[in-house]
Amino acid sequence: MGVFTTSHEQVVFCHDRQSGLRAIIAVYSTALGPALGGTRFYPYASEEDALHDVLELSRGMAYKNALAGLDLGGGKAVIWGDPDKDKSEPLLRAYGRFVQSLGGRYYTACDVGTYVQDMDVVAKETRFVTGRSESHGGAGDSSVLTAYGVFQGMRAAAEHRWGSPTLVGRRVGIAGLGKVGKHLTKHLLDDGASVVATDVSERALAWAGATYPEVDLVGSNDELIRQPLDVYAPCALGGALDDETVSVLQAKIVAGAANNQLAHPGVEKLLADRDVLYAPDYVVNSGGVIQVADEIEGFNFARAKERAGRIYDTTKQILQLAAAEGVPPAVAADRLAERRMAEVGRLRTILV
């Protein structure tokens, strides 16, 4: 994917040789306000892979923020490298300088490979950062409300599919027991669901086995999707739903925290053809961005949680619209997001 073949407003390549920083910041849209999206620190196989990821993720953030009711546009950043080996204070501060250079067009936050402590370091060089630690006046770990929002979206999908907004008695498969998957597991168990899970990290599997012995653990995602599931929750990296996965998936609902779950256009139709109800990822996983966005105006957890709870209503609206219009939920969600960006964004042309 080339930069000039997309609808992005701005793509910035950031390089600081001394610290080793290689980063890309992509601003998809500022129609609703400054772009907000996290920073992913990941060992991409190539520069092309890093660029593709940041372009896709930033577009998803614009749609996510629109449907979350935020007056914020969509952006994303990726740092190309291994966070366990390459992350350092000079690198993070150099990255903060590049964020600052955009003058507020882009607010950053945590994502895969970055944590609240990293944002505290980035904030030494820029004021356009959210997701900071509570000791620095921030919202803390955004995975808390990300998981809460996914659970609310899952409840809405369960009501649409089975007539009741609960997962009690349902078997849910979680792919990825990282920051979000851990919290989601607790929500589901507390609701009365049974959980089967997997992760590529032995440490994560060991944590799950010790903390929740009632969770069934399997060795791979391929094994997980072939389980007799009611709900499949992809909570790791994107692209989890491809042609092969959909063809063997046993679940009747897909609702998870991962971004960009559909591996390519057309997968949403494959899901519909197999009667699998897909709760669009950027709708149900928006609790995290709601949490860090609340930080911009002075963080209040109760207020942010109440806003994240509305993901249940938004998911219901999208599923009902999809059924009424005879389109997959992903298409219905896109339409609603695009409508808000166009209608509210248009108001900026009115001089005041």
Order of helices and strands: EEEEHEHHEHHEHEHEHEHEHEHHHHH
> What proportion of the residues form beta strands (DSSP E)?
5-15%
Instruction: Report the strand count.
Output: 12
Q: How confident is the prediction overall: mean pLDDT? A: 94
Domain Glutamate/phenylalanine/leucine/valine/L-tryptophan dehydrogenase C-terminal: 140-349
Binding site for NAD(+): 176-181
Keywords: NAD, Nucleotide-binding, Oxidoreductase
Organism: Dactylosporangium sucinum
Structure characteristics:
46% helix; 2 domains; Rossmann fold; globular; oxidoreductase activity, acting on the CH-NH2 group of donors, NAD or NADP as acceptor; nucleotide-binding; 12 strands; six-stranded parallel beta sheet; alpha/beta
Give an overview in words:
The protein is an alpha/beta fold and 352 residues long. The chain folds into 2 domains: 3-59 and 73-136, Leucine Dehydrogenase, chain A, domain 1 (Rossmann fold), CATH 3.40.50; 143-286 and 314-337, 3-Layer(aba) Sandwich (Rossmann fold), CATH 3.40.50.720. Helices cover 46% and strands 15% of the residues. The strands form 2 sheets. Strands 1, 2, 3, 4, 5 and 6 form a 6-stranded mixed sheet that branches. α9 links the parallel β10 and β11 (253-254). The relative contact order is 0.13. The mean pLDDT is 94.
